[in-house]
Design brief:
Elements lengths: L3 H6 L5 H13 L2 E6 L6 E4 L2 E4 L7 H11 L3 H5 L6 E8 L3 E10 L2 E9 L6 H4 L4 H6 L4 E6 L6 H15 L3 E6 L12 E6 L7 H8 L6 E4 L5 H12 L3 E6 L4 H11 L4 H10 E11 L6 E9 L2 H8 L7 H7 L1 H4 L4 H10 L5 H8 L2
Parallel strand pairs: 7-11, 7-12, 8-9, 8-10, 10-11
Antiparallel strand pairs: 1-2, 1-6, 2-3, 4-5, 5-6, 12-13
Length: 357
Amino acid sequence: MFSSGEAQHNPYASVGYFHQILQKAIAAGARDIHLKVGQPPGARVRDDLIFFRIDPLRSEHTEAVVQHIVADPEILANLPRLQEYDTSYEVEGVGRFRVNVYRQRASLAIVLRVVPLRVPTLDELGAPAACRALAEKDRGLVLCVGAAGTGKSSTLAAMVDHMNAHLARHIVTIEDPVEFIHTDRKSSISQREIGFDTQSFAGALRAALRQDPDVIQVGEIRDADTMEIALQAAETGHLVLSTLHTPDVARTMNRVIALAGGGADVRERLADSLQGIIAQRLLPRSDGQGMVLAAEVLVGTGSVRESIKRPTGNPSLKELMTGGASMYGMQTFEMHIKQLVQQGLLSIEAARAAMSF
């Protein structure tokens, strides 16, 4: 793609040089890698953005990186008009990345999220015990929620991996882009990527219902159409896993009800379908060695379903999470954060900051 002369003038024209940047960032423990004109390459390490001690990037540097990353010839042919684009990228022996290319101040910028080559286990993530029970449900809706960068995709991948290790199921994932690569064990896993294997979440979700699935993982519920089809799938005997960008259980419930159109009938449908919600935050470990997962967990018990249908006159979801800890594995953020402090994983200062969120 680039001549040797271009590579000398522009080091990023060499794919090897670009891969060295990625390799060094991963060796430093980077979670994300930032490439933007006007500053050196950056890496998010333990929640801080740090920068390489090299020259700031120029527009031809980021454009060269995009030409390494993007495989679609139609996108490459129209780079001057590209505004944003999601894809994945893999470097053998280095790692996999979820990539977002975007335009800012008339130049291209790139953020690469590091995706481990191996699917993490629920234990390795520190995921709540309820995740195993939810992964083993036969039908219904399971939501993993939180802000961007809180590990939602990792938790869903670990739940799929748990199924794959223990259950004979056909699992269809719909992702934008595909992040973790699953290898069939007890389950058969079909992974579909938006833009390559299908055009949209809603279209792929409709098609998945004709693919004899036991489980459908939808990368994200972004609109009312996808929400409606996900509910229909859960109502017709499938287990549906998905994510939302909502910070906690209460606001997730409000968001789902709003996406589904509101009203008493929506509350009835949601109450009958919902198996559980896991809300996640990543907080800095007290030893400075990365982040620790704090989670809020709601499980679809009879009392929870009744409170969703008729919130007036019934206990709040927070009360039910507090009271359902020992029997159902439910917990509020406050409960889990206090537990993390007691275990020495979280400082009191970090806990106070998290509880004031």
